[in-house]
Design brief:
Order of helices and strands: HEHEHEEEHEEHEEEHEHHEHHHHHHEE
Structural class: alpha/beta
Distance between the termini: 50 Å
Mean pLDDT: 89
Shape: globular
Strand order of the largest sheet: 3-4-5-2-1-6-11-8-12-7
Strand content: 15-25%
Number of helices: 14
Low-confidence stretches: 469-477
Amino acid sequence: MRAILVSIVIGFNYFVGFYFGLVNAVYSVLLAIALVMILRHIRRIRYAPFRDLENRSEMPPVAILIPARNERNVIIRTIESARSLIYPWTEIIVINDGSTDDTLKTIISHYSMRRIDPLYRDIIKTRPVKGFYYTSEIPNLIVVDKENGGKSDALNCGINICKSPYICTLDADSVFEPESLIRLVTPLVQSTVPVIASGGVVRVLNGVKRENGVVKQIELPRGNSLAIFQIVEYLRSFLFGRVGLDALNCNLILSGAFSLFQKAAVITVGGFQLGNVTEDMELVVRLHKHYSLKGDPYVIRFVSDPICWTEVPETLKMLGRQRRRWHLGMIQSIWQHKSTIFNPRYGRLGMFAMPYNVFIEMVSPIIEFLGYIIVIISYILGMINYDFFMLFLFLAIGYGIFLSTTGIFLEELTYRRYPKWSDLFIMLAYGALENFGYRQINSFWRFSAFFQFLFGRGQWETVRHRGDKKNTAKTSA
């Protein structure tokens, strides 16, 4: 019995080593693709006359949908950033999703809005709408007050009322850069293949100086290591993970904080689904699934230079809630569409995108978390030799440092949004340090999401951010 148990443990050690090697190899390929794609994109946009496109009729109208629940402290900041967009045709639709604080009152009072009674078609069924608010001073801004139904329900309500052919989702704790929307839409109008969805980059707002909702000075947050770790993490995720997958039209994740969708496509597949805690990923998978089956040409894009800034958690408790929720949503989305995995009827979705997300992203916290424990114990007990243990540390930690620092250098070589040399050196240091504790805690949070899924605890975990210093805590997506 003991011999069998030892064999199982040793076999698991080899499996962990193989898995880390496989994941690192896949990430290396994505990194190489991302480097080529980003440099090509930068050459293309270097002389792009974005300002000239501001009043061009080719640019399609876009509705900015801002779902808000208990966002009193930041909602005006977010609306002002949407108003600052350099874009010819926008509707700004704020959906107050049954807030129990003064979110609605704050908006009405700030903009001197009055109640109106517009034509409203309930194309996608939602919780009842209680009222609409408008001001002639800002004719492209409308506020919808509805009963609480969750973020998906609020977005569906926004789709029902908007007139534009495209919708752009914006979290109420996030702010646009003025050129972000025009940069996101331009590849769409230049594409010869219909673009049904497109996502931009989300970066960390903590530490960034703003004025009237507009980002003025970018620097690292002072005195909060957790936020800096997330800055490094976001750079790695957005700059090589999603860019690499975009080249293969295999992105399943577009951040709901900043994504663009073709309205007709979203309505065709039934809108945002209720009950999934990552409504953005579930919708993207469903769009891939629908268009793959139809056989119509389509593309879902990720564009690496439009930027939206979002506030990230500054405590372990709130960060843990966020990461569990994100991973739970991924598990829910994959489980719901499991029939596509290795199913050739769904083309790239079935044969690459879904298997990649299952074996590289979804199950990785299980193998990582258990791997760290079992490999270390196995080495201490003499069940694996020194060379194998060193190989594990190289694959698990050494290569992680390489990927993190490479993501930072990629940012520095291309967009360089953090101009201070001191900030660069701090990020490089954090890129190394995150592999000694931060990644392992993240694996534990994501690992625990499986238990939430297995035991049916799929509810939305509220994340509280600090908000502006002068304000109190708030809740957000």
